[in-house]
Specification:
The complex is a heterodimer of chains A (about 280) and B (about 325).
Chain A lengths: L1 H33 L2 H4 L14 H7 L2 H34 L5 H13 L6 H10 L6 H26 L2 H9 L4 H30 L2 H6 L8 H14 L4 H27 L10
Helix pairs in contact in A: 1-12, 3-12, 4-7, 4-9, 5-7, 7-9, 8-9, 9-12, 11-12
Chain B lengths: L27 H27 L6 H4 L10 H7 L2 H33 L3 H16 L2 H11 L6 H8 L14 H29 L3 H9 L4 H29 L3 H8 L4 H4 L2 H11 L3 H29 L2
Helix pairs in contact in B: 1-14, 3-14, 4-8, 4-10, 5-8, 6-11, 8-10, 10-14, 13-14
The chains are: A mainly alpha (about 280), B mainly alpha (about 325).
Chain lengths: ~280, ~325
């Protein structure tokens, strides 16, 4: 009995150390965001944000370049989410409710496309966007993002659509509802969690994306948030780096995403990491 | 983009798909997939086609400004294969990818086994920490790491000096290619472990406790149970997670690019992704850049075959 107790304490200690290691960079970002640059420039690091203030966050958030990047990111992301969910919903209906010729090849193509890296495509996509006059246009970037997320979104929604038994719909039709009505009243509400999960997936992908944006959004005023953050670091580096402000900028980009991710993670991945979140 | 670290490998499936044969539906499914087809052909198919053609053309700066781009057959590919720098980049990318992916899966797997043995509250603490790290947007995470390893005021050098390594004072970790890649690898491992650990842990929770208890009654030790019961049962999850890590680590771009921005020497630290970027946007050599891109796509498809096949099996 005593041996197993020692073992338990040991395992707990290891686990807590690992938890600290993984959470630390996020903590360090928040901590530095609250501290004035003078404190950060001193020889010894400050581990707790006592005496800190919201000054860095306020300075960064009121910078006009932040507002502009935020609005571009919002436009691109929302367009992507709406377009991807609509298109993927039809696609998911097709593959989970019907057998048709070419279905197998369609699914295979989706899965393969889903694996293609942006790094193997971005030069050609840049060329295409520039010849269409869509460089630095939110709509152009949104089209590329939608194409990138649709294959996996269809695959994800397919599971949810298949989970709603078609019998239920048919029963409603026997009870006198039209096919469309049966679908809208019975199937659609049951699909809501699936649609939310896919929307969050598309949102996170578009909001965080860096590579394609770097290539396609070449001008300073058309930067998305990740590009803005990179630019902010670079601009700061040419002077003495103001790490307090840089960390405040990171915090502004990251915190909404982290909160969003934590809220929906359970729903999004029940089945993906089965119950891992509930512990 | 299709590869973000938050990408889930398997969709949540609540119940097995139930194929329906409907009579009046021959046309409907085809109509339903039209938007997907149009989008994918326009935004991915067309660029891939262009890229294949361009990889057989001479397409440099002159062609960017309107000069005709003559077909040169396999010249771009031959130039690549005979270019020692290209081989350096390929070997570097493969080694970087193998090391990073192996260490990620090893740490993630060990963490999953650990989670399985923990009391509930400790496990939740560890899982929340992993989720927070997982949720960090890549660019924000890179920015914090660059601050931590900053040569002048970074936490890392301060801590090393405190521990007695005086030479760490003012050491720039990004200046030497080797330490540059170690830093990149550590950061990528930090970013990827949460997904790996949580997926393998999910696999472990599927291992039935009755079987394990039966094995204990028969006198099996912990290690024996791990080798003969647990490992075979989670082998599918393990291989898929490993494969995804290999595919994702082979074309890392964002992390390498941002570390190069922060002070790495680009030529000595290029991996495949940043090399294409440099060829295309830096030198305007779209012919060669297309050839490298085709190579990356081909490699990805070969590596993905097994994963895609295993996903297809889920699609009844």
């Amino acid at each position: 009995m005593r041996r197993s107790r020692v073992k338990r304490v040991l395992l707990t200690t290891v686990a807590l150390v690992l938890a600290v290691v993984w959470a630390f960079p996020v903590y360090w970002m928040l901590n530095s965001a609250f501290l004035p640059n003078v404190v950060l420039q001193s020889t010894n690091p400050t581990f707790l944000p006592f005496g800190g203030s919201l000054d860095n966050l306020r300075t960064v958030a009121t910078d006009p370049s932040f507002g502009s990047a935020l609005s571009i990111s919002l436009v691109v992301t929302l367009t992507t989410v709406v377009a991807a969910i609509t298109i993927a919903f039809f696609g998911a209906l097709a593959i989970s409710r019907f057998r048709f010729r070419g279905r197998g090849s369609f699914v295979l193509a989706l899965l393969l496309i889903q694996m293609l890296p942006a790094e193997g495509l971005f030069i050609a996509q840049y060329k295409m966007m520039s010849s269409l006059g869509l460089l630095n246009q939110a709509i152009g970037l949104a089209v590329l993002y939608t194409a990138a997320v649709v294959p996996f979104t269809i695959w994800m929604l397919r599971g949810f659509v298949a989970g709603v038994p078609a019998d239920l719909e048919e029963a409603a039709m026997v009870d006198g509802l039209s096919r469309t009505k049966a679908f809208l009243k019975i199937t659609f509400p049951l699909l809501a969690p699936g649609l939310v999960a896919s929307a969050v997936y598309a949102f996170l992908q578009a909001w965080n994306e860096f590579t394609v944006a770097l290539v396609v959004m070449t001008e300073q005023q058309s930067r998305t948030l990740p590009l803005w953050l990179r630019g902010f670091v670079q601009a700061s580096q040419s002077r003495e780096t103001d790490w307090g402000q840089v960390m405040a900028a990171s915090t502004l980009v990251a915190v909404p995403v982290i909160i969003f991710f934590l809220i929906v993670q359970g729903r999004m991945s029940s089945g993906l990491v089965g119950g891992a979140v509930k512990g | 983009m299709t590869t973000g670290t938050t990408t889930a490998p398997t969709p949540p499936i609540t119940s097995p798909p139930q194929p329906q044969n409907r009579k009046r539906s021959n046309r409907l499914p085809l109509v339903l997939i039209v938007p997907t087809l149009v989008l994918l052909v326009a935004a991915l198919g067309y660029p891939i086609g262009w890229q294949v053609l361009t990889s057989f053309r001479k397409y440099g700066l002159l062609q960017q400004f309107g000069a005709p781009a003559p077909f040169v057959g396999l010249d771009n590919y031959i130039a690549l294969v005979t270019d020692p720098y290209m081989w350096t980049v390929v070997v570097r990318s493969v080694v970087f990818c193998l090391v990073t992916a192996l260490v990620t899966v090893a740490i993630g797997g060990a963490m999953a086994v650990l989670m399985n043995a923990l009391t509930a509250w400790v496990r939740v603490v560890l899982q929340v920490a992993l989720l927070v790290a997982w949720a960090m947007p890549v660019v924000a995470a890179m920015t914090v790491w660059i601050w931590i390893i900053d040569w002048r005021r970074g936490l890392l050098n301060w801590a090393l000096v405190k521990l007695g390594f005086d030479q760490a004072q003012g050491h720039n970790w990004l200046a030497q290619p080797l330490s540059f890649f170690v830093v990149a690898s550590v950061i990528i491992i930090w970013m990827s472990v949460p997904f790996v650990a949580l997926s393998i842990y999910a696999g472990l929770t599927q291992v039935s406790t009755e079987v394990l208890e039966a094995a204990s009654l028969d006198g099996a030790t912990g290690l024996q149970k791990l080798r003969h019961i647990i490992l075979p049962l989670i082998a599918p999850v393990l291989s898929i997670v490993m494969l995804l890590q290999l595919i994702w680590d082979l074309r890392v771009f964002t992390q390498i690019k941002l570390l190069q921005d922060a002070g790495g020497v680009a030529n000595e630290t290029n991996l495949l992704g940043t090399y294409v970027y440099q060829l295309g946007t830096g030198r305007g050599d779209f012919g060669t850049a297309s050839a490298v891109s085709i190579l990356i796509l081909a490699l990805t498809i070969v590596l993905s075959a097994y994963y895609v096949r295993s996903l297809m099996k889920e699609d009844v």
